[in-house]
Each structure stands twice: as C-alpha cells, then as structure tokens.
Design goal:
Layout: H1 11-26, H2 31-46, H3 60-78, H4 85-92, H5 104-113, H6 124-131
Helix pairs in contact: 1-2, 5-6
C-alpha cells in the first residue's frame, strides 16, 4: 500500500476524517494541515485502516479500555499526581499486576530478570507473551 493510500479504511473512518478536517478548516487551519490532523486523529482512535498484523491482535473492547485508562492517567497527571501511582508499588512488591498494565520498560526489566532471550528486539506484545 502506497503511503497516503486510504483504500483500507472503512467508510465510517473516512467520514470521521472528513468531519474532523472540516472542523479544523472552520477554525482557520489550512486544507492540507486539516486533512493531516484528521487522519492522525482517526489513526490514533482506531489503529489505522483494516490491516493484518499486530493492529488486529487487540479486540475493540480492549483498545477502548486502554484508551480510557490512558485518559484517566492523563487527567491524573494534569492534576499533579504521578503517572504510574498505583502500578509502581504493585510491580515492586511482585503483586499480581496484569502484564498489559505495565509499560514496555517495566516489562523489559521483568524479562531481563527472567533472562528472556531476544528481549531487546521484542515489542510490548511480544514481551507480554514471553513473560506469560
């Protein structure tokens, strides 16, 4: 697929991008910049077009939960609270913290402690799989 090709996006994603772009244009953003921002927003919200590979591993419900968790942490940070308030203490005590709730760095440390081979080249999903 050529860069910038939108053929793998659903009609709903295309409509959403168009609506977002129109909104930016109404606020005085150039057409080209508005379109770029709109597609970036669609990609961030839905993980891009319908493609095979790692983007399909997570269910829509799991993605929604992750976004909600991320928004909650961002709001907490804006209020002046540390970002990983609950996670750091649970991880350091060896509690039963879900691996998906950990950052890649935290997973990397656990993989190093367990001497997982090839960990430096692994993505977060691969680290989770190797540690479970």
């Amino acid at each position: 697929m050529a860069r910038g090709d939108k053929s793998t996006y659903t009609t709903a994603q295309k409509r959403k991008a168009e609506h977002i772009a129109e909104s930016y244009e109404e606020r005085g953003v150039s057409d080209k910049e508005a379109e770029a921002r709109a597609w970036a927003t669609v990609n961030k919200q839905s993980g891009g077009g319908e493609k095979s590979g790692s983007g399909k591993e997570k269910s829509a419900t799991a993605k929604r939960a992750d976004r909600k968790d991320s928004a909650r942490r961002a709001a907490s940070a804006r209020k002046g609270h540390p970002a990983n308030r609950g996670r750091a203490s649970a991880g350091s005590h060896g509690g039963s913290t879900s691996l998906t709730a950990l950052t890649k760095d935290e997973l990397m440390k656990r993989a190093a402690a367990k001497n997982v081979r090839g960990r430096s080249r692994m993505r977060k999903a691969e680290l989770i799989k190797a540690l479970s």
